[in-house]
């Protein structure tokens, strides 16, 4: 039900961003997948530097980057892939400056569990 290649690229980008956000030795990245009723939720969590509340919308804007060599394209393309191609949602579900960030993807599941 998903485009493997595009979906894989989205996950790769989220993990790359998580890696870039971690600026200490005890870095941790986790990926959680769960089924909630007729939806599948995928969360990518890091314990990196976090995103300011004011910047949470900006991160999906094409060209927005805080990195020296960043294009600011990873998240804007990810959003298009998830929302336009898979009719899903992607958003920052939680982020605390200095503690970490969770991105969540929600897509329809082909199998419904009640
Ligand atoms: N997990 C994260 N933790 C903290 N900040 C993040 C995280 N993911 C994204 N960001 C912020 O959002 C910005 C935009 O991310 P995006 O992936 O679109 O671009 P980029 O990583 O800067 O460059 P590109 O992906 O095009 O190489 C980043 O520059 C960073 O400031
Ligand atoms: Mg990126």
Explain what you see.
This protein is α+β, with helices and mostly antiparallel strands and 114 residues long. It has a single domain, classed as 2-Layer Sandwich (Heat Shock Protein 90). 26% of the residues lie in helices and 29% in strands. It has a 4-stranded antiparallel sheet. The mean pLDDT is 95.
Output the keywords:
four-stranded antiparallel sheet; alpha+beta; single chain; binds magnesium ion; Heat Shock Protein 90; binds adenosine-5'-triphosphate
Per the CATH scheme, the topology name is Heat Shock Protein 90
Through-space gap between termini: 20 Å
Second CATH tier, the architecture:
2-Layer Sandwich
CATH superfamily label: Histidine kinase-like ATPase, C-terminal domain
Q: Sheet bearing the most strands, described? A: 4 strands, antiparallel
Cα shape? globular
Spatial order of the strands forming the largest sheet: 1-2-4-3
- How many beta-strand runs? 4
- Series of secondary-structure elements, N-terminal to C-terminal: HEEHEE
Our Rg estimate from Cα atoms comes to 14 Å
- How large is the count of helical segments? 2
